[in-house]
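Predicting holo structure, pyridoxal-5'-phosphate bound.
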Amino acid sequence: MSRVYNFSAGPAVLPEEVLKEAAEQMLDYKGCGMSVMEMSHRSKMFDDIIKEAEADIRELMGIPDNYKVLFLQGGASLQFSMIPMNLKKNGVADFIVTGNWAKKAYQEAGRFLTANKIASSEDKTFTYIPDCSDLPISENADYVYICQNNTIYGTTYHKLPNTKGKTLVSDVSSCFLSAPINVSDYGLIFGGVQKNVGPAGVCITIIREDLIPQEDLKDVPVMLQYKTHADNDSLYNTPPCWGIYICGQVFKWLKRNGGLAEMEKRNIEKANILYDYLDSSDFFKGTVVKEDRSIMNVPFVIGDKDLEAKFVAEAKAAGLENLKGHRTVGGMRASIYNAMPKEGVEKLVEFMADFEKKNK
Ligand SMILES: *Cc1c(COP(=O)(O)O)cnc(C)c1O
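Done. Tokens:
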């Protein structure tokens, strides 16, 4: 067996320990004679799995009792529709557009309500986070929407926007469980888990109870109403059982490893190794303004397409995979999620220094 250092933006690296446990339990989960993939979602065995997963993420994030944790399907993208469908009261929402994902959410919401773009960083290819201290928040906004960590562009909010009392909704897909957050600052937090938490196929939505409409929304399919999933503890229909099980194992791995404060410490340390090198190099260049840099996704360029293609190919040959940047940014991108060990980042920087020397 040989494993590479996988810098994919998503689906992405998972803790090796968790993969090994899953392999050990593949044929016979805890003596029940079957795999989690094969068991009824109504069984006691699975009920324990989903309840423990919820308890563990509640503990890790310090989720208050008046928030529901929902294990959903349809990826982060379906939340772009479910959020406006469920949260619209006045039929107005404000969007801060800091990248492709925020833009998609903004466009999708526009199908269901009046979506206002109140700030954007598109003028400079999303390389920064706009000043969010005094935005023109709509008086009747049902919520203010952000994408907290911009997977493609490598920016992140180091300070949440001033929503002037309006409900904050945040897409945390690519920074989920990477650092402690104060859940009470948000009305709704959601993330596709395939970036930092688990296998594709699960989306976790954490929603304050009073935001869940209690009446049957006649024009919203039952499966797209938060109430359906909240009332049934995410077991209205068959949930993505296997994915939830792996997420649960990742939560346990996080707890064993010191929780989110420790993750943040490690993630900052890893990111600094890469950023320090980028700042010292006159060959590679980070694309994001310093104060808005993400500790999860690090885009960088050489500025010569042929050399960049050569870099990606040679890195792959050296066991450093998936470093090609998103097509809209070009260049390279290293995603260094929780499960990326420090040695992976050190190896990458070593490789970069060597490549710089040979190709400058
Ligand atoms: C990947 C990603 C999405 C889309 O996730 P899907 O599960 O593929 O729908 C949305 N938002 C962010 C920030 C992402 O990184």
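The chain has a mean pLDDT of 97.
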